[in-house]
Amino acid sequence: KRAKGQVLFDKVCEHLNLLEKDYFGLLFYENSDQKNWLDSSKEIKRQIRSLPWIFTFNVKFYPPDPSQLTEDITRYFLCLQLRQDIASGRLPCSFVTHALLGSYTLQAELGDHDPEEHRSDYISEFQFAPNQTPEMEEKVAELHKTHRGLTPAQADSQFLENAKRLSMYGVDLHHAKDSEGVDIMLGVCANGLLIYKDRLRINRFAWPKILKISYKRSNFYIKVRPAELEQFESTIGFKLPNHRAAKRLWKVCVEHHTFFR
């Protein structure tokens, strides 16, 4: 009961036969939408307090180029995470992309399309999109036929090649307000901090441009390098729902910066 997060995480990776474990982490939920990463350097019981000890294994850092991962199994777990992100609507896609990614999932899971075995309803047990239509399932089946001969590992690689181009790939979103009190979302990703309003990206700050990240009470601040013609760096502030949300965002930023820079 005095174990640190790292001990549990190592056990999980060992069980999964996973060597490239830096991309993953364990999550626990404070409530239905408030997720926290288990800190590997701290005792588990200090972080969980009175919550049940229930964790999910997740991708924490989405590699910008998944083809650089060395092991098929790492790519497979990344695919599983993305399938979940897409089916839950967390990672938005167009109809065409839903169908294409779905068809690679079928090839990976079922192998070549077999007219004998794969009758009309073989698709409905798979969830490709938050609101899956018969029209989409038809398109998925049609595309599945074109992937004949791809191994599961090749199908996964094709899936990732297409998924990594999605605009919200690997973006961790946090609710906030800007200095005028307007509702926005702050997205943390491999390249930096992104700002969204009504699901549209309105600004981005690449990591090299950000000099300092801090938080105080429920405020979150970034200090930005001066632009070409300016003399002084500027500090931009955002308001988060509460102190813990500000600290959580700060931590996610620091960890992403450390990992990708």
Automatic annotation (TrEMBL):
<keyword id="KW-0009">Actin-binding</keyword>
<feature type="domain" description="FERM">
    <location>
        <begin position="1"/>
        <end position="261"/>
    </location>
</feature>
<keyword id="KW-0963">Cytoplasm</keyword>
<dbReference type="InterPro" id="IPR000798">
    <property type="entry name" value="Ez/rad/moesin-like"/>
</dbReference>
<dbReference type="InterPro" id="IPR014352">
    <property type="entry name" value="FERM/acyl-CoA-bd_prot_sf"/>
</dbReference>
<dbReference type="InterPro" id="IPR000299">
    <property type="entry name" value="FERM_domain"/>
</dbReference>
<dbReference type="InterPro" id="IPR019747">
    <property type="entry name" value="FERM_CS"/>
</dbReference>
<dbReference type="Pfam" id="PF09380">
    <property type="entry name" value="FERM_C"/>
</dbReference>
<dbReference type="GO" id="GO:0005886">
    <property type="term" value="C:plasma membrane"/>
</dbReference>
<dbReference type="GO" id="GO:0005856">
    <property type="term" value="C:cytoskeleton"/>
</dbReference>
<dbReference type="GO" id="GO:0003779">
    <property type="term" value="F:actin binding"/>
</dbReference>
<keyword id="KW-0597">Phosphoprotein</keyword>
<protein>
    <submittedName>
        <fullName>Band 4.1-like 2</fullName>
    </submittedName>
</protein>
<dbReference type="Pfam" id="PF09379">
    <property type="entry name" value="FERM_N"/>
</dbReference>
<dbReference type="InterPro" id="IPR018979">
    <property type="entry name" value="FERM_N"/>
</dbReference>
<dbReference type="InterPro" id="IPR019749">
    <property type="entry name" value="Band_41_domain"/>
</dbReference>
<dbReference type="InterPro" id="IPR018980">
    <property type="entry name" value="FERM_PH-like_C"/>
</dbReference>
<dbReference type="InterPro" id="IPR011993">
    <property type="entry name" value="PH-like_dom_sf"/>
</dbReference>
<dbReference type="GO" id="GO:0031032">
    <property type="term" value="P:actomyosin structure organization"/>
</dbReference>
<dbReference type="InterPro" id="IPR035963">
    <property type="entry name" value="FERM_2"/>
</dbReference>
<dbReference type="InterPro" id="IPR029071">
    <property type="entry name" value="Ubiquitin-like_domsf"/>
</dbReference>
<dbReference type="Pfam" id="PF00373">
    <property type="entry name" value="FERM_M"/>
</dbReference>
<keyword id="KW-0206">Cytoskeleton</keyword>
<dbReference type="InterPro" id="IPR019748">
    <property type="entry name" value="FERM_central"/>
</dbReference>
